[in-house]
Amino acid sequence: MSASNRIAASADGAAVASNAVAPIAAEQRVRELDVLRGVALFGVFLMNMIGLTEAQVMSTSIQLQSLPTAHIDRIALEVINWLFLDKANTLFAFLFGLGFYLQMERIEARGADFARIYRRRLGVLLLMGVTHIVFVWMWDILHLYAIAGFILLAMRKVKTRTLLVGGILLALFGRIAQDSLAEFAALNSWHGYPSPYSDSAVIVRQGLSTAGDYVGLFHEFARLNLVDYLLNASIVGWLLYVLGRFMVGAWVGRHGWIQRAAEHLPGFKRTLWMTLPAGLIVGAISQWIFVYAQPSYGQTGYDATAAYVEAGPMLRWGRWLFVGRTLHLVAVPLLATGYVCAIVVGLHTTLGKRLLTPFAWSGRMALTNYFGQSLFYAVVMFGVGPGLDLAGRIGATAVFVMIVVAYATQVLFSRWWLSRFRYGPAEWVWRGLTYGKWPQLTLSQRPRA
User: How far apart are CA 74 and CA 72, in angstroms?
Assistant: First the structure.
């Protein structure tokens, strides 16, 4: 081989290697995936804020019942739990597993070492998540996504059927494990620690918030996570829950249904009519049981532990509560599947595309927007710095309105940002640390309005 040929071959090889590890371009993105991620992000935003206001974390039951909007708040909470509780985080985790498979497919097609790249990607995500949960948001999910991602990486060669069956079993068992561990902690006096969900604990946190004491709040939430997340071992239940949904997402990815949605549109339509109505009906029945067979559960939404403490053993193990839990476990995957199919089908209609496309803007910046949502919780609920300190003074109705407005703002900001930059700020940092080089951030030429 001549010297010129060797130089050309070397240059070509360098170009291939560079392309093999480069982030995907905007035109390579799957539109359905971005829209689904944006919709899931709205649901997570809403349910996290509902949990913060309704779950005996920053508000007491007496405070909520004393609000002038208490009656409508209860109705709003019931509807929100019916439509979003466990469905939003199910969809979010499912999409991570789906995205995992798409990235593996793309990177391996380029001839790069997927495992090495993805370990770095997960390592950066774990660092971000741990920092987030320690200093900003006590219910961070990113650290769990990273841990579950490492497990999924080790399972990437398992049979397709194993992904589906194992994913379903883990997802169901994870949810049951969460409830069981919460009950165990409550019945055993929280391992000797004061209950982090008692009225007195809430009042302490409210006092620190009003005083603008970040350090004090930091210690209180660290204690809550120590007792209810680590000592209670609910981290194990959540990990199984997340991993199961990752596996189902990877299973869907292997079939290529989302990547080639137009080809599989008839299947999406059939599945839509089988899952969405059934999920809504089963979910409504389970929510009715939770509210009327055990009112405290319906009032607190996320806080199953408070319900266990307030309810007697007969009610706790009563047949109606068992039926409600079982129906909820059935309703969650049905509704989540129905939502996915409805969105995919909707994107292939003129009206649906017009209504759903804005979700893609926020979906492309999901990590940045997720972090931004944490700052929103802090500003609204706490009195630190410019915080409004509204803990105990807003209910589900006000929360819903605020989240709709805040999320719409994120959508508009995402559109503005992406008209000027290739990635969101957090996504750019994540990619740079993953690939070992900073991708070009600015667009070479702005699209015309």
Answer: 5
